[in-house]
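Example complex used in Figure S2.
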Amino acid sequence: DSGVTQTPKHLITATGQRVTLRCSPRSGDLSVYWYQQSLDQGLQFLIQYYNGEERAKGNILERFSAQQFPDLHSELNLSSLELGDSALYFCASSAQDEYNEKLFFGSGTQLSVL
Amino acid sequence: AQKITQTQPGMFVQEKEAVTLDCTYDTSDPSYGLFWYKQPSSGEMIFLIYQGSYDQQNATEGRYSLNFQKARKSANLVISASQLGDSAMYFCAMRERYSGAGSYQLTFGKGTKLSVIP
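Predicted assembly (232 residues):
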């Protein structure tokens, strides 16, 4: 158990809808990262928050947004969903934001857009 | 250019044999970290081993060792005495400074699917 909790584990929805994925980092970790894993794109970094503030943006679509709350949990909001958004979405956390820190991953949310 | 290259999409190894999974990386940052993660069919990402850019010795964690050749920019994972439970996807990843910002991001390779044969 990595200590990172993601809910829900599975999500099935229709095109055009909006969903929210939730992540609780390991206790004490300040950095939260969101990744998308799909067969064609592999593991892609989406966005990072550090102690409540956005720190870095990756390949995140404008239809997607995220935030980190004062208790450090984070939510990823996906709107106007398309079939191509179907993927495994991971949340990860680390204590700080250093090159020598490993990321602890949650078990992921499998999103299926029908 | 690819930051992390894993040239072996799939590998087979006999149980109890050793196997090497290749990884090359590209960075101009002097401070970086190299990581290997395992993803079994259940989907979770499991950390295996870490090597820092300034580390002189190759990292080892139980049956896992990292063959770090800095001049060649390679960080191959060696699994000794393979077990059936080692069958999984293996990802090499590098953490480096991200786009001049004050953050360090982890970039993954495309992975190698390892199958252990009884």
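Chain B is about 0% helix and 50% strand. The CA atoms of residues 82 and 101 of chain B lie 40 Å apart.
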